[in-house]
Structure formats: C-alpha cells, structure tokens
Design goal:
2 copies of one chain form a homodimer. Chain A has 16 helices and 16 strands. By secondary structure, chain A is α/β, with parallel strands linked by helices. The radius of gyration of chain A is 21 Å and the shape is globular. At the A-B interface, helix 3, helix 10, helix 12, helix 15 and helix 16 of A face helix 3, helix 10, helix 12, helix 15 and helix 16 of B.
Amino acid sequence: MESVSQIIHARWLITGEQNNQTLENHAIVIDQGKIKAILPSKQATERYTATDIQRFPNHVISPGFVNTHTHIAMNYFRGLADDLALMDWLNHHIWPAERTWVSQEFVRDASQLAIAEMIRSGTTCFNDMYFFLQATAEVADQAGIRANIGMTVIDFPTAWAKDTAEYFSKGIEFYSEYKNHDRIKATVAPHAIYTVAEPTLLKVKEIAEKYDLKINMHVHETADEINQSIATTKQRPLRRLQNIGLVTPRLIAIHMTQLDDEDMAIIEAGKPNIVHCPESNMKLASGACPVVALQKQGLNVALGTDGAASNNDLNMLGEMRSANFLAKLVTQNPIALPAHETITMATLNGAKALGLDHITGSLTVGKAADFIATKLDEIETLPIYHPASHLVYAASRNQVTDVWVAGKQLMKKRKLLTLDEKEIKAKAIYWSKKLTKNA
Amino acid sequence: MESVSQIIHARWLITGEQNNQTLENHAIVIDQGKIKAILPSKQATERYTATDIQRFPNHVISPGFVNTHTHIAMNYFRGLADDLALMDWLNHHIWPAERTWVSQEFVRDASQLAIAEMIRSGTTCFNDMYFFLQATAEVADQAGIRANIGMTVIDFPTAWAKDTAEYFSKGIEFYSEYKNHDRIKATVAPHAIYTVAEPTLLKVKEIAEKYDLKINMHVHETADEINQSIATTKQRPLRRLQNIGLVTPRLIAIHMTQLDDEDMAIIEAGKPNIVHCPESNMKLASGACPVVALQKQGLNVALGTDGAASNNDLNMLGEMRSANFLAKLVTQNPIALPAHETITMATLNGAKALGLDHITGSLTVGKAADFIATKLDEIETLPIYHPASHLVYAASRNQVTDVWVAGKQLMKKRKLLTLDEKEIKAKAIYWSKKLTKNA
C-alpha cells in the first residue's frame, strides 16, 4: 500500500483528453498536488492509502474550466448598463465609471467577487486583461486559483498608467514579481489594434519574445474595427498584425468574429490561438466566430466569457452551451461541436492557448490536480444517460459542488474554503452604493 | 384594516406589463387566489391583514413564466441521444424509444419530473403536445401548475391512438373531462403539416371552432419541411394552411424559423400567435425565428423550451437569455429585445398566445396570483443595479426560491410543496434503467 495525499472516487470521470472518454467508477489518486494515477476505484483502494479520501457517487468529475478571456474586476459593473449600443455603452457608461472608480481597492474587491463566482461555477484557471495587476494577482494567489494576468498596454491614460511607457514598466515590474509563482503567470496584453499603435505593438513583440510570454489581444471583434482599420490604413487588422510579425502561436487572438478568406489564410499560416466568446459577441451583436471552420484548419480554439459587464456572468457551463448552440446554428449542422469536443474547448484548448497544457487542462497523470465535481442526480439532470451531454446541455453552475486546484480543495459541498463569501457580498453592495450615488 | 389571504412583500417587483416597470418595496395583496392590490409595502401593512405574510427583502418578484411549447413527458429522453442529425435522431432513437416505452405510466411519471423541473425554474403555466393527455393533466392538477394540454393529432398510429379518428375521439373525451377545470385547458394540436393531411386539418379547424379552442402546431420548423411541401404540393406550408383558413389568431404557430416575404405577408394578414424556441432551433440547427421583425409587424411572439430531448431543459430563464442573445445576433443590433421585453415575451405574450392573458401572464389587479420570487443577493448577481437585467442576463434557475399559482404556494425556499422530489428522482432512475437495459 502506497501512501498519497488524496484519493477522489467518482461515479463518472471525464478525462477531457481528446479521446472523448467517460470512465465509470474510477478514482483520481493525487500526491503533492499532482495526478499520480487514474484507475478503477477498486484498484485505487487496493493500492493506495490517504488521509483525505472523498467519494462522489452521484457526480461527474471533470477538468476545471479554463476561462481564456476575462476582465474580472469588471464584475462590479455587471448589469450597470445593458441593452445599449457598444459606443454608447463604452463612452457614456463603462469608461466614465472606470475613470471615476477603478483603483487598487476596487480591483482587489471586484476580483474577490469574480474569483468567488468562477470557483462556484467550476473555473480553475483564467486569463485576465485589466488594470492594477497586483491587486488581482494577490486575490488569485490567496484564493488558490490558477491565473494568467495580462500586462495591459493601451495608448491612452487610465488610473493605472499615465502613458505607454508606464504601462510597460508596470507590466514588467509585475512580471518580475510573479515570474517564479507556481500558479500565476504574466502575458503581454495589448488591448486592440484601434487603441494600440504600431510602435507600441513592436515593443509588445520585443518584450513578449524577450521574456517568452504569450500575447493576449482583442482581434477582429467587430465589423467597425475592420472598417476603421481599412479606412485609416487600407488593410484589415490581421494583415497589419501579420506585417509586424505578431500572428504566430504566441498570439492569443480574442473574439475573431469577422474573418474573410484573406484572414483565414493569414491564420492558417501563422497558427495563433483563438478565443471564442460567444455570449459577449451575441449580446453586443458583434458576430459569430467560425469555430468549426477554424478547428477544421487545425487551429486551437479556446473559450472565454469576457467581462461580466458584457455577458453578464463568468459561467463556463453556460458559455459551453452557448458556444455549442451557436456552432450548430452557424454551420446549419446539428452534429457540429459534439458534447465532448465542447468540453475540450472549455478546458484543454484553453490550457494550450495559455501554454499551460503540460500543467493543466485535462485529467492526465503528471498534470496538476485541477478538477471539479458536478452533481448529476438532480431533477434538472435526470435521467442520466451520458454525463458529458449533461455537462454541456443540462447542468447548471449550482450543480458544481467541489473544486480543486493543484490538489488543494477550494470549494467543498458548495462552501468556498479560501474566500469569505459573506464579506465579498457585503463589499459588492458597499461599492454598488458608491457607484450609483454619484451616477 | 381589511382581511385578505396573503400579503407578499418584495424588495423589487416586476409587473411584466408592457410599461417595463420595476417597483421597489411593494407588496402583492392576494385574496382567494387573485391579485387584489399592488401597492407600496408600507401602505399594504396599513390597509390589510393576513395570516400568510411573507417578506422577500433580497428578491425580485415577477410573473411566473409561461412555457408556450413543451412535450413534457419527453423529459425521460433527456440526453438519451444528442449530437445527431434530426432524422437519425427521430428514426433511430426517439421514435423507437417512444414506440417501446410510452404508456400512461411513463407519461405520468415523466410529467412529474418535468413539472417539478418547471416549478423549480419558475414556470407557472405550460402548453403541451404529447400523448396520454389525462396522465399529464392529472399530474398538473395535483401539482397545482397551470396547463394547456394539446389534443394531439397525427396521421399515424402511436401507443396513444391507432388512427386519426381515435386521436380526435380521445382528444374530445379529454376536452369534455377538463372543460370546466380552472387551471387546465385543452387545445387542438395537429403535429405538423408533414404528418397531418389536409382532410385531418379541416377536421381540426372544425373542432377548434366548435369548442372555441386554440390550435397548437409546429409550423415552418426546418428548411426540410418547406422543401418537402414544395416538392409535393408546389406550395410552402403557410400558404397551404392559409388556403384552408388556419392562419388566424386561433393558431399558435411553433418554431417559424423559415419565413420568406410571402410567408411574412400571410402572417401579417392572418395574425397567428408565434412561439419562438431558440435553444431547440439552435441545437437541431433548424434556424432562427425572426422575432424582432415579427414584433415590428405587431405580431405576438411567445417563448417555449420545446421538449427536454431537444433542449435539454425546461428552463425559461435560460431560454430568455438565449432568445435575447439570438435576437441581438440576428438583427446585428445590441439594442434589440431589451431585458423587460424579453421578460414580457416569456410571460404575458405566452398568456396571450394561449388566450389566457385575462387570467395570467402579468402582475395585474384581478388576474390570478401566478408569480415567482428570485433571490438576487448571490455572488452571481451582485451588484444589483437593474433587477430585470439580472433576470435575463445573470440569474440562474436555482435562484428562483418561491413559486405561486392562483395564490397557492407550490415551492417555498426551494422546497416543492405539492410534489415528492425524492420519489420523482427514484422513478426517473428506475425508468432510465429500463430504457437502457433493452437498448
């Protein structure tokens, strides 16, 4: 008998690897935060002992979700201004609110709300782009979640930085502080082609290559973005990004709703990672990323929620369903993006996009023990024929009961173990009163 | 002080009337199952007394949802066969399963599961089309929910009826049995133009007019339906229905994803009620009903989930979100179908389609007390700026805590008061074992 940290028994176990496997009555054996073995429960009991043994006789266990595009501190703007045109929304609601309110304290408190929401809906890793990076990183560190934090770069002043040089210096300072952290990593995050000029993008490229970081950027989000680029430069954004050598596997291209044949050829040649944000794209009427066509070209397509101001949640279960429905609608094919592939998009493909697929994204021996348990014997998910189908088409976020990252349990039977739910709620109410008082 | 049955105080109250109103700190005063008054909580306390007084200081109270298209007994087929082409799904999975398993007992037990699911997600009225009508009606009666049960007519034999004459005779028998019921009504429900021939449709029309019943029918669900109709009759289905006088306000036309200019003219002239089922239409890749264009023509568009075999839930909160996102995507307009209008579509428009808007569908003095309470002070719906926006864009079904129909409380703090959840779950597991044993 070998002694290990934990043995977790599951009625159903979805590995999230590309073999589309659902195992029954299997156990995950964990030692020192990593998956040591996945084997039938009976064998696990014969071979291993642990002080922490948990049984999930009515649950499916699956890899935690990788939310590959967030602006998590925008959780405090959730529902502040809906049903508006994009520029009205930005100019008259979001940007004024950000100018007035965004600070280190705001980002810290809003990050707590967002990370609590993410853990409660099964997300174990997120990829963020916002301001006051340390504030978010500190909350993520304390909460135990895995995070990639974008070193945001934008060619106009915000409360975070007064000019491009300061964005870079603060970004590099953040990178240096966290470069040896086991769960928190930096990316370089130029906002978009319409807010970041070419000289700045060249500097982004230089820094990303120097420190070997991913580049996380909104690309081809709306038709306006394309039209404006053509009007000012006679070229579409992707061509301009290709010209300066940015369309490579290092790029995480977010949104990508507007793609013509030329764009598709550029992507096929450069192989950037693509992040699909179906709910934000539908809610803002931006368009639909051609996920199935991109996957057919062999490209890696991950899934993100975007910020809660334009979604309005950070719920990857709901996002999987929306991505699945949208893919079937767009392709006019009910077989497009089956359940297991949708789960892979929300887990392993996200890890790949972030360059973390050697660490997380699937239940694979040697990877970190990042996984979730979802209770299926509920009125809403009975009968149970195919657990993967239920995860995508029927389960809701409150059925996620337990969450682990690197073997550490962050939620147990719906109770958050690393965050104070009561305090987080009180702070959200306190800030919303401040925000609306001066509105 | 006047004595009444109930006083329900709400922090926020959405009337669901077309004035898009959200009231604060108001009370619903209920007597003998009907709404007697809606007034500020303070005034309600001064004017009325009741033995049943409940306070919802962190909830929004809104009209119960009217799910305007269901096949509720198909809940036992939830997730049995996903990610398949429509005809493969029907021919090799759903129809064989129905032939083998559908019986009075099956429909009764599956209806319990479905009605439990509906109450738990805030639905107070549904419009069904299936077999063994009495089995569903008895469960609805006992559960206390409001139901319209379709007298299904289809030109081929099923376990329910051997031929068209038997469908009609069993349907009329059902109508006679329930015609004086206060919550359960009949509609005539010819399945679709490709399964019901013209002589049968003429008989449907005759019966509907004789008994003054709505006609509930799948219309223009898929491109195949249109192509098949043109191939066999040189006419699109809506033209054929118009020719026999069926396109009138009596018609509840379900799906309507395929509408050309000729169809739009027919609809504009005939003014049928339209039921949009966005999730089923996306999941089966059927298309998208042009909801906003239809509403602009002054048509009544309601919302339905379809059966759980093609959705895979009966969750009207999720359906509202999908309808909203889809409308914005299809119109390329982020202002299309704002939150309040989406709620109206899921409530009052459904009641109108069923001819029940004098009884239910909005919180209006004189109507039945059919309403729900949704808890908003949760991690997922904080901060709270606009409760209507949260209902559509952020809340999930488990946040619906309390449900009333005709003043009778069917769920209290998430506990079902008229159905036995434990027994329902056990039966679902029992039946699923039977179904998969012989598969």
